[in-house]
Amino acid sequence: MIFKTLKWGIAWSLSLSLFCTNTVSAQKLNGKAVDPVDLVNPLMGTDSKPSLSNGNTYPAIGLPWGMNMWTPQTGKNGDGWQYTYAADKIRGLKQTHQPSPWMNDYGQFSLMPVTGKAAFDQEERASWFSHKAEKATPYYYSVYLADHDVTAELTPTERAAYFKFSFNKTDSAFVVLDAFDKGSEVQIIPEKNMVIGYSTRYSRGKLTNFKNYFVLIFDQPFDNYSTWEGKERFKGKLKSTADQTGAILGFKVKDKSKPVQVRVASSFISAEQALLNLNELGNRTFDQVKADGRAIWNEKLGRLAVEGDNIDQMRTFYSTLYRTLFFPNKLYEINASGEKVHYSPYNGKILPGYLYGGTGFWDTFRALYPFLNLMYPSINVEMQEGLKNAYLEGGFLPEWSSPGFADIMVGNNSASVVADAYIKGLRGYDINTLYEALKHGANNEGPMTAVGRKGVEYYNKLGYVPYDVGINENAARTLEYAYDDFTIYQLAKALKKPKADIELYAKRAQNYRHLFDPSTNLMRGKNKDGKFQSPFNPLKWGDAFTEGNSWHYSWSVFHDIEGLIGLMGGNKQFNTMLDSVFTQPPAFDDSYYGGTIHEIREMQIANMGQYAHGNQPIQHMIYLYNYSAQPWKTQYWVRQVLDRMYQATPDGYCGDEDNGQTSAWYVFSSLGFYPVCPATDEYVLGAPLFAKTTLKLENGKTVEILGNQASAQNFYVNDLKVNGKSYTKNWLSHQELVKGGTLSFDMTSKPNYNRGATLDAAPYSMSTELKTVFKK
């Protein structure tokens, strides 16, 4: 079965090619058409290291939400910093599924062309390279490997890839396959120019029956071959199984006119399925696969068409947009019967249906998932069905999946991801099972700290997770649980669930109030006996909070900013507190960590006071002036962050990019609005960056966003018209937006102190809705 060629793969590739070439969309720079994919820099954010993140990204060469990506590997095997811009040697071209360097990778293997001798050790085979002889696009990568005088190229599909290695004339050309350590196998099949095998390496959780099976088919016969295990080579051996294995395939090469080409695919299910996945390439040539990949990216990126005269802004916009379209990535595959099936990292079985993985909801619930719900809802329908499968297979929804449960970060933010999709109108999946999953997660501790709710018994009894009961980051957990309860409340209302459910989660959504300290106007850890923890330093990172301090987390009341304003003493005091974030020096207490973590350093060097855009907890805070009658301050600070903290360069982020979240902030903010509170219908206003942006929605409608007179100086909103009518609110309705229309912002260099400065202009707050229920 493994060696059969299936016709459906060829048909799939041809139909895909026809679809993509008919849907390419060009953007306009100074009035001239530009393909959006040509504005993407996959190296944005790659100039990073553990002590300072400028993105912690790698050049991801793949298709949107594809099961596999590929990247040049500069770091040692197993190093999460698998590609860093400052490196000068490449060890291989690696298949990767890595969501971040902190999570590391799983199922990886690599290919590396070498000459002169069959060097297979990662240090010996590594070659010097230069960015001057490197070309990285979302759909194609090329690099000149100087020590071997070889140009290596690759172009991917969702589960396969095409490689091309251009050697000079030699009888000592080799392609080295590295299946990595922790248990791997390779088998060479010379009569078919084929290598099959598997990698079992992974970094997070406990994966039962995990293997990433791969198949490689070369376009020319092997002149010689070997396997290798660890440091030892076995000439002529066909199969090796060991801790670390690989293959060495030798070729006689006449010249560069006939490069060695190899088609590669993989599967988490079986070797037979890997061969099925190879049919994504069909019998297309390398250049055809490359052209089709380009068309796919142009279609996806082109759904947001921006027009302007600033090439740097356009490059940054499309480079960040590119990063929003990878995670979570597909874990499902298509079997011989055309059915969707997946390996389950939750129970080790092969099961039917969708599954996605590789994302942390602590990061991505904020803007990444709301962005999918606006611009790519059909893919999130698949993701929601995949979440249902994860719950049925693992007993809980994941909060960080890589690819299964990962014990990292806090909160129960799967509730937000599920609720926001339904509130925003997504349908066609099993929402009732997902609702039960949310209730289960909200009322139980999971198999590990980061699944379910750690401290749930305290939270449900006292209304908060106490500081003094041995549960770390307790205040952060409390604040996030309260917001997550709000999202369950919202979903319960939408699904017309029993009154008891609705009232329970409405009440719990107000639990944030337990941690508000009126003596400081900040959130503070509270002991089991009801007294605030002491001593209290609001600049102390960690401890009661997660990767931040009280100044960062005190705004994490996404669903009830009016309630928070009331606790702080009204709009004037609230605005003073907001202003204080920026006017304070970037002082910090890092004693909880025993050293300065990179998130602290990134705040310190940004020269924005206590504002720490490089991490997620405070990213929405800039938009809160819209709730307190000073929206012009939102407009000012949004532009400051857009201009200063992002650039399409290797050091172009101000912290971890984090699976599309920090990029989604940029994309939304460039449009002129942001989802402060997912699981509501509203976006909170900022100001558009571009003269014109057109959103091409999946329902066939379009939204035109005009930034009239927008410029480096004109970043304030003087007036807003929606479909030609003056609009005075500080928020937009999702349901109205998806009907299509025009948002016309008149931009100016001076604030309009009157627009949006009335109480009725403020966005949604739960206290507004329930004033008769919850009294201050």
Automatic annotation (TrEMBL):
Domain Glycosyl hydrolase family 92 N-terminal: 39-267
Highest taxon above the source species: Bacteria
GO molecular function terms noted in the UniProt entry: hydrolase activity
Named cofactor requirement(s): Ca(2+)
InterPro entries: 6-hairpin_glycosidase_sf (IPR008928), GH-type_carb-bd (IPR014718), GH92_a_mannosidase_put (IPR005887), GH92_N (IPR041371), Glyco_hydro_92 (IPR012939), PNGase (IPR050883)
Pfam families referenced in this protein's UniProt entry, alphabetically: Glyco_hydro_92, Glyco_hydro_92N
Signal peptide: 1-26
Subunit structure: Monomer.
Protein name, entry field: GH92 family glycosyl hydrolase
Origin species: Sphingobacterium anhuiense
